[in-house]
Amino acid sequence: MSIQDLTADMLTRIRNALRNREKSVVTLSNKLNRGVASVLKEEGYISDFEHVADGRQGIIRIHLKYGARGEQLISGIERVSKSGRRVYSAFDSLPRPHEGLGMSIVSTSSGVMSDRKAREQKVGGEVIALIF
Questions:
Q1: Using one digit for the tens of pLDDT, what is the confidence trace for 101-117?
Q2: What is the DSSP string of 1-30?
Q3: How far is the C-alpha of 61 from the C-alpha of 44, rounded, in Å?
Q4: What percentage of residues in the chain have a pLDDT greater than 70?
Q5: How far is CA 77 from CA 8, 110, 131, in A?
Q6: Which of 40, 108, 123, 128 has its Cα between 20 and 30 A from that of 92?
Q7: Which residue, among 66, 67, 70, 64, has the nearest Cα to 48 in the 3D structure?
Q8: Residue 99: how many CB atoms within 10 A of its CB?
Q9: What is the pTM of this model?
Q10: What is the torsional sign of CA 66, 7, 98, 115?
């Protein structure tokens, strides 16, 4: 069985692993998934990730991060732009989940970045996901 949307699959695996209190999760690798994982690491939602070559496209091992008392740092992940419906936004109208307490992940011409960084650089793009 082939997976059509690797990014949606990655976000679902992270959501399920957090719900089960897993320490890490393994997902298929592509350039967009590596970009999303690096944004999650930069913003402090995950502790680390690593790309492991397996002879094909590779896998990404994501090490999840929890609070001091074991609480989840990510309470929700929502895929915005899907293969059937792409969602684009200018830098001044990027979504601010939970009044700025969450973040949006945006794929821009300058690479994959958080909504805060996209506003600083004044670039818009495709809204990949909302993290809150």
A1: 999 999 999 999 999 99
A2: ---S-HHHHHHHHHHHHHHTT-SEEEEE--
A3: 16
A4: 98
A5: 10, 23, 5
A6: 40
A7: 64
A8: 7
A9: 0.94
A10: positive
